[in-house]
Design a protein that fits this description.
- The protein has 153 residues and is an all-alpha fold.
- It has 2 domains: 111 residues, DNA polymerase, domain 1 (Orthogonal Bundle); 36 residues.
- The protein is built from 6 helices and no strands.
- 15% of the residues are buried.
Amino acid sequence: MIDPSQVRTCDQVFDQFIEHCESRFRRDDMAWATVSGYRRVLNALWRPQIGTLPFLRVDYVTLARVADAYRCSRKTYNNAISVLRRAFEFAYRNHPYHMNPARGLRGCRMARKDRIRPDPFRIDEAETLIDAIREDWGEAQANYDEFQFFAGL
Protein backbone atom coordinates (compact mmCIF):
# COMPACT_ATOMS: atom_id res chain seq x y z
CA MET A 1 0.00 0.00 0.00
CA ILE A 2 1.28 3.45 -0.87
CA ASP A 3 1.44 6.14 1.77
CA PRO A 4 -0.99 8.97 0.76
CA SER A 5 1.81 11.51 1.29
CA GLN A 6 3.70 9.74 -1.50
CA VAL A 7 0.92 10.20 -4.07
CA ARG A 8 2.15 12.38 -6.90
CA THR A 9 0.22 13.96 -9.73
CA CYS A 10 1.33 13.58 -13.31
CA ASP A 11 2.36 17.28 -13.24
CA GLN A 12 4.75 16.52 -10.39
CA VAL A 13 6.14 13.52 -12.27
CA PHE A 14 6.63 15.66 -15.38
CA ASP A 15 8.42 18.33 -13.32
CA GLN A 16 10.76 15.73 -11.82
CA PHE A 17 11.41 14.22 -15.23
CA ILE A 18 12.31 17.61 -16.73
CA GLU A 19 14.58 18.34 -13.73
CA HIS A 20 16.34 15.04 -14.38
CA CYS A 21 16.72 15.88 -18.08
CA GLU A 22 18.12 19.31 -17.20
CA SER A 23 20.70 17.68 -14.92
CA ARG A 24 21.67 15.37 -17.78
CA PHE A 25 22.07 18.46 -19.97
CA ARG A 26 24.37 20.04 -17.37
CA ARG A 27 26.48 16.85 -17.44
CA ASP A 28 26.60 17.14 -21.24
CA ASP A 29 24.64 13.89 -21.51
CA MET A 30 21.60 15.36 -23.32
CA ALA A 31 21.15 18.16 -25.83
CA TRP A 32 19.27 21.29 -24.78
CA ALA A 33 17.04 20.93 -27.84
CA THR A 34 15.95 17.53 -26.51
CA VAL A 35 15.13 18.89 -23.05
CA SER A 36 13.28 21.81 -24.60
CA GLY A 37 11.36 19.49 -26.93
CA TYR A 38 10.36 17.22 -24.03
CA ARG A 39 9.13 20.23 -22.05
CA ARG A 40 7.17 21.58 -25.02
CA VAL A 41 5.39 18.26 -25.66
CA LEU A 42 4.57 17.69 -21.99
CA ASN A 43 3.25 21.24 -21.57
CA ALA A 44 1.23 21.33 -24.78
CA LEU A 45 -0.33 17.86 -24.84
CA TRP A 46 0.02 15.82 -21.69
CA ARG A 47 -0.24 18.34 -18.83
CA PRO A 48 -3.60 19.81 -19.92
CA GLN A 49 -5.11 16.33 -20.26
CA ILE A 50 -3.66 14.29 -17.37
CA GLY A 51 -1.52 16.71 -15.34
CA THR A 52 -3.82 16.89 -12.32
CA LEU A 53 -4.53 13.16 -12.17
CA PRO A 54 -2.80 10.97 -9.56
CA PHE A 55 0.12 9.39 -11.41
CA LEU A 56 -0.46 5.79 -10.30
CA ARG A 57 -4.15 6.00 -11.20
CA VAL A 58 -3.60 6.87 -14.87
CA ASP A 59 -4.44 3.86 -16.99
CA TYR A 60 -3.75 2.83 -20.56
CA VAL A 61 -7.23 3.73 -21.81
CA THR A 62 -6.84 7.31 -20.56
CA LEU A 63 -3.46 7.67 -22.27
CA ALA A 64 -4.74 6.10 -25.48
CA ARG A 65 -7.76 8.42 -25.51
CA VAL A 66 -5.53 11.50 -25.21
CA ALA A 67 -3.15 10.20 -27.88
CA ASP A 68 -6.00 9.27 -30.24
CA ALA A 69 -7.47 12.78 -30.00
CA TYR A 70 -4.13 14.41 -30.90
CA ARG A 71 -4.34 15.58 -34.52
CA CYS A 72 -0.90 15.96 -36.07
CA SER A 73 1.56 14.33 -38.45
CA ARG A 74 2.75 10.79 -37.83
CA LYS A 75 6.21 11.98 -36.82
CA THR A 76 4.82 14.52 -34.32
CA TYR A 77 2.49 11.87 -32.92
CA ASN A 78 5.39 9.44 -32.48
CA ASN A 79 7.44 12.13 -30.74
CA ALA A 80 4.57 12.89 -28.34
CA ILE A 81 4.15 9.21 -27.46
CA SER A 82 7.91 8.80 -27.02
CA VAL A 83 8.16 11.71 -24.59
CA LEU A 84 5.31 10.36 -22.45
CA ARG A 85 6.81 6.87 -22.42
CA ARG A 86 10.15 8.29 -21.28
CA ALA A 87 8.57 10.37 -18.51
CA PHE A 88 6.49 7.44 -17.27
CA GLU A 89 9.45 5.06 -17.48
CA PHE A 90 11.44 7.51 -15.34
CA ALA A 91 8.67 7.71 -12.71
CA TYR A 92 7.82 4.01 -12.65
CA ARG A 93 11.36 3.19 -11.56
CA ASN A 94 10.11 4.16 -8.09
CA HIS A 95 7.28 1.62 -8.48
CA PRO A 96 8.84 -1.51 -10.00
CA TYR A 97 5.87 -3.71 -9.06
CA HIS A 98 3.33 -1.55 -10.87
CA MET A 99 2.43 -1.85 -14.54
CA ASN A 100 3.48 1.15 -16.62
CA PRO A 101 0.46 1.95 -18.87
CA ALA A 102 2.54 4.10 -21.24
CA ARG A 103 4.46 1.02 -22.38
CA GLY A 104 1.39 -0.11 -24.28
CA LEU A 105 1.21 3.02 -26.43
CA ARG A 106 2.48 2.41 -29.93
CA GLY A 107 3.66 4.93 -32.47
CA CYS A 108 2.46 5.16 -36.04
CA ARG A 109 4.23 3.23 -38.73
CA MET A 110 6.19 5.62 -40.89
CA ALA A 111 5.58 5.04 -44.58
CA ARG A 112 8.22 5.92 -47.13
CA LYS A 113 6.18 8.97 -48.13
CA ASP A 114 6.29 10.24 -44.50
CA ARG A 115 10.07 10.34 -44.36
CA ILE A 116 11.88 13.56 -45.19
CA ARG A 117 13.71 13.25 -48.47
CA PRO A 118 17.32 14.41 -48.60
CA ASP A 119 17.81 17.66 -50.45
CA PRO A 120 21.49 17.67 -51.48
CA PHE A 121 23.27 20.61 -53.04
CA ARG A 122 23.58 20.63 -56.82
CA ILE A 123 27.14 20.57 -58.20
CA ASP A 124 27.12 24.26 -59.12
CA GLU A 125 25.82 25.20 -55.62
CA ALA A 126 28.54 23.13 -53.96
CA GLU A 127 31.26 24.68 -56.12
CA THR A 128 29.98 28.20 -55.37
CA LEU A 129 30.09 27.47 -51.64
CA ILE A 130 33.56 25.95 -51.85
CA ASP A 131 34.85 29.01 -53.75
CA ALA A 132 33.41 31.32 -51.09
CA ILE A 133 34.96 29.21 -48.32
CA ARG A 134 38.32 29.31 -50.12
CA GLU A 135 38.12 33.15 -50.20
CA ASP A 136 37.04 33.54 -46.57
CA TRP A 137 38.80 30.67 -44.81
CA GLY A 138 41.67 29.57 -47.03
CA GLU A 139 42.73 26.58 -49.08
CA ALA A 140 42.83 24.01 -46.27
CA GLN A 141 39.23 24.65 -45.19
CA ALA A 142 38.05 24.69 -48.82
CA ASN A 143 39.73 21.32 -49.45
CA TYR A 144 38.12 19.89 -46.31
CA ASP A 145 34.64 21.11 -47.28
CA GLU A 146 35.09 19.97 -50.86
CA PHE A 147 35.92 16.50 -49.59
CA GLN A 148 32.76 16.55 -47.40
CA PHE A 149 30.53 17.58 -50.30
CA PHE A 150 31.77 15.02 -52.76
CA ALA A 151 32.24 12.15 -50.31
CA GLY A 152 28.58 12.45 -49.34
CA LEU A 153 29.20 13.63 -45.81
